[in-house]
Amino acid sequence: MGCVLDEGPFFHGTKADLRVGDLLTAGFRSNYRPEVVMNHIYFTALRDGAGRAAELAAGDAAPRVYAVEPTGAFEDDPNVTDKKLPGNPTRSYRSREPLRILGEVTDWRRQSPAALQAWRDRLASLRADERGEIIN
Question: Is the peptide bond before 89 cis (omega within 30 degrees of 0)?
Fold first, then answer.
């Protein structure tokens, strides 16, 4: 048996309205590069990180954070691991296998409008830069 990367708990941020037991799967467009259909489903062990992802997700629905359980193997998210800081301080992961919804989490910290705009500006500049490609 391989080493366990993280014991969790794990979270996924989205604007989708989901129920306990629903499965999140890969195969949807990236929130960060909409032209890319993702081969993995992404999640984190940091609830506020999942909240930020939910707030930045496409669409007008309310951002939501869900506690999730990986149904299969997962790995460090190579899009953030070792790119800015050594290791995986954001505790970000991805899997080709579905994530099972365990329940909605409501005690995550919302971003200020200014902080959200700064993130949107940063993502827009990444989209314009070839080095901002997603490792899919």
Answer: no
Q: At what angle do helices 113-127 and 47-56 cross, to 10 degrees?
A: 70
Express each pLDDT in 11-54 by its tens digit. 999 989 999 999 999 887 766 666 777 788 999 999 988 988 88
Q: How confident is the model at residue 2 (pLDDT cuts 50, 70, 90)?
A: very low
> Please, which contacts does 87-94 make with residues 24 or more away whose CB atoms are closer than 8 Å?
88/5, 90/44, 90/46, 90/49, 91/6, 91/44, 91/45, 91/46, 91/49, 92/42, 92/43, 92/44, 92/49, 93/5, 93/6, 93/10, 93/42, 93/43, 93/44, 93/45, 94/40, 94/41, 94/42, 94/43
